[in-house]
Structure formats: structure tokens, C-alpha cells
Amino acid sequence: MREMTLDDLTRVIRATVGVDDSVDLSADIRDTQFTDLGYDSLAVLEVVSRLEKEFPASVPEEKISDLRTPRELIDFVNAQLHAAA
Amino acid sequence: MKTAVVTGLGVMAPNGMDTETFWSNILDGKSGINRIQRFDAPRYPVKLAGELATFDPAEHVPSRLLVETSAMSHLALVAADKAIKDAEVDPSQLPEYELGVITANATGGVEVGQRELEKLWTQGPEHVSAYMSIAWFYAATTGQLSIRHKFRGHCGVVVSEQAGGLDAIGHGRRVLRQDHRLVLVGGTESAMSPAGVVAQIPTNNLSTSDDPAAAFLPFDVRAGGYVPGEGGAILVIEDADSARERGAPRVYGEIAGYAATFDPRPGGDRPPTLEQAARLALADAGVEPGDVDVVFADAYGVPELDRAEAAAITAIFGPNGVPVTAPKTMTGRIYAGAGALDTVTALLSIRDGVIPPTVNVGTLAPGCDIDLVRERPRTAPVRTALVLGRGHGGFNSAVVVRATS
């Protein structure tokens, strides 16, 4: 089973919600808060909804506001993938 | 009482995506009405529209914002950028709670709504964008302008169909008088999707002509409905004193008067109230009918509604008593965008001393005893202009703009 990577996340972010001119998504943003990258909870919801189509994971809406950084989101999704495997 | 002056204009019109291109095309009689490009129109009874055919929002709107917003808001974001630049004002240098935004909207982000509802229908709810929740609704444009430019004062939206652009200007003036320095006002509209156009068909007010030069002919004996248009305008209005304080480079004119009325129920014994709206706006401005140099008509293009408007104008000014024009024959009916665009045109008319033409209109229909400026622009000193707007469902609004001394 393929785990979700940071590259997967940034690819989906670019495709779904776009990138602020002042933000470098190709840097190591694992521990940068989504809000500092310019993404509010609605943007993260949009990204998660696209990720769920690619990876067999499910992120409850009420959980989304707890996932404040890319690392937390990736870890949450991958934990689900492992649990399902 | 504070005087509201216009210090910046931002135009997005089918026949010009900046103020000067729009204005020179209007004076040259160049129309933006053409065959609908945006969707497969031959399958629909409506064939023509005033579209912004060459506008690519991705070239002008940051990608983050692009996905959150619909076409109507893309147009407003660009128009607002132009208006702020034209006013040569840096809003970040002004107290943010003294900056407001009032826009009008009538059709919402209908193309986004249609796209996402199609996904819901064909693919399921998990495929509907989360941004559906914020992109389509009437207040989206005001909200996005407020966020983008940090205008944290009074913000609102007015929804009164084609009267809306004028109502936004009138409401913006009221807000300005309540401890505000600067307010963005106006409206933009884009209903160029099958759902957006089809929703208007039941009124039987849409033109089904496929000849761009004969499809939208207000006051003409051949009038057979209106052509839909998209676009609009955003204006910067400021308190005259604070505009002077900051050294605003241009003052296009003053928003001297405004009024709105609502028609009684159709079929009753009371008449419609456009005339009252116009009279109240003139009284608000403190001007007599004889002071008015030009009337910008709502110009529905529907015979009965044209006669009603001509009757209102004639009741105030007398038969052929004032030059009347409707340059929207070159843009189509733009709903909430129309009043804002007409107000811009009126201000440019004041600036340059010329009344733009109502293209394509020939012989006036019986009962339309108005001095309609046709074919070519008419040179005339213009100091005071009356702009009329009617919204489907009974809305009537009027704005008086005046040259500043």
C-alpha cells in the first residue's frame, strides 16, 4: 500500500486551492501551520476532500480543524491507511 | 452633511475592459453584443449576449482567490483594483474602520452553482467543492473585496435586480456620511451559463433575435426584449473633504441625489413609481428638472416597459424635454452591473461634454416621446445627469450625478 507523501499533498494543494505568491510550497513545509501558508479550514476541507478520492482514507470534518500542519494531516491519513491494511 | 465625490472608476464591460477603452468604444458606437461563446447557445432560444469574451480571470486574480470565487466576483476584484489605482489611494494608509464596501448583485455566482450542482447530480456530494458554500451567494463579492483590501468598516450587499447598481451607490453614500472616508460601491454580474440565462426565459423579456444590430432596441418600434450582458463597474467614492486632504488627483463628480421606490402590485389601480423615484432623487440633489442635462434610461427593450419609462421621463421633463440615452444597447442588460456602469458613463459624459449614443435604435415607438440620442454622440455641456434603473419585480432607483465646481 502506498503512503501519502508531502509531494502528494502539495500536488493536490496546487491543483485544488492554489498557492499565495508569498508562499514556497516546495520548501519543507511539514511543520508550517496551514494558516501560515494561507489556508483556512475551508481550504483544508477542500484539499482533504480531493485526497480522499485518491487515498482510501476518511478525515471527519470535525477533525480537520485539529490538523494544523501538513505533518499532522499526512500522519493522520497514513495512520488510517495502515489501520485499513 | 458630507459630500460624496467619485474619485476612481473601474470598468469591466463587454465593449471595453478599462474605462478609456470602454468610453471610446461607447462614443464610437462599438457594441460588445455578439453570439454567446461561453456555452453551447444554439440549443437555447437566446443566441446573443454582451460577454467579456477575452477576459481570462487567471491572468488577473491570484490562484488562491480564483478557486474561492465565481465569475461575478472575478470581475469585481479586477474592477476594484482598477478603481483604487485610478483614485491613486493606498487604503492601508487610511483608518481601516472608515473604509466600506457596498456592492449589488442579482444573479449570484450562477455558473459556479450550476457546475457544482452538476457534480452533485452526476458524481455525488463528495465531489462538490467546499467553496460552493461561499462563491455563489450575493454577498460574496463584498466579502472578498473587504478581505482583500482590509476594508473593515460598513460592508453590505443590495439585491434589487437591475436597480441594484444604483442602490449600492445610494447606500454607499449613506455609509460615507456615517464616519467613513472611502467606500467601494457598484456591482458586477455574470450569468453566462445555461442556468443563468434559462432562468430569465419565463419572463418573456429576453430577445431571441440572432442579429446583434437588431436584438436590443429599447424605445424602438421593433423592440423585442433585452440581450443579457455581463460585467459592471466599481467606483471609489469619498468624502469630499478627505479626498481633498489626501490630494486625490481626480474628482469625476458628486453623487448629488438618490432615491428608490417600489411599485404597487401589478393589475391594481395605482401606477408604477419610477417617476416618483426620479423626482425624489432630483429633490434630494436640490435640482429642478430644468437643471438636468441628460437622462440615462433603464431602457428595458420591452415595449410596455419602454412606454412606462418614457411616460415617467415625459411627466417630469415634458415631451422631448431632455436628451435621453441608453448606451447599454452596446453592452446588453447587466442587472446589478448596469446602474454602476451607467453612472460611470454619466460621469464621463460630464467630464467630456458629450452624450453617448443609443446605437441601433431607429424609429421610436408610439408613446415614446423622448429626445433619444441615436446614431452619433451629441456634444453638449453636461453638468447634471439623472441615471435611472428598474429591477424585475418592482424596484425603481434613480441617482443624480453632478459636476463639482
TrEMBL record, chain A:
Top-level taxon of the source organism: Bacteria
One Pfam match: PP-binding
Domain (Carrier) ranges: 3-81
Keywords: Phosphopantetheine, Phosphoprotein
Stored PROSITE patterns: CARRIER, PHOSPHOPANTETHEINE
Protein name, UniProt field: Acyl carrier protein
Source organism of the structure: Micromonospora cathayae
TrEMBL record, chain B:
Pfam families per the UniProt record, alphabetical: ketoacyl-synt, Ketoacyl-synt_C
Alphabetical UniProt keywords: Acyltransferase, Transferase
Annotated ranges, domain Ketosynthase family 3 (KS3): 1-403
The UniProt record lists the keyword Amino-acid biosynthesis: no
InterPro entries: Beta-ketoacyl_synthase, Ketoacyl_synth_C, Ketoacyl_synth_N, PKS_Beta-ketoAc_synthase_dom, Thiolase-like
Source organism, top-level taxon: Bacteria
Family: Belongs to the thiolase-like superfamily. Beta-ketoacyl-ACP synthases family.
PANTHER family for the chain: POLYKETIDE BETA-KETOACYL SYNTHASE 2-RELATED, POLYKETIDE SYNTHASE-RELATED
Protein's name according to its UniProt entry: Ketosynthase chain-length factor
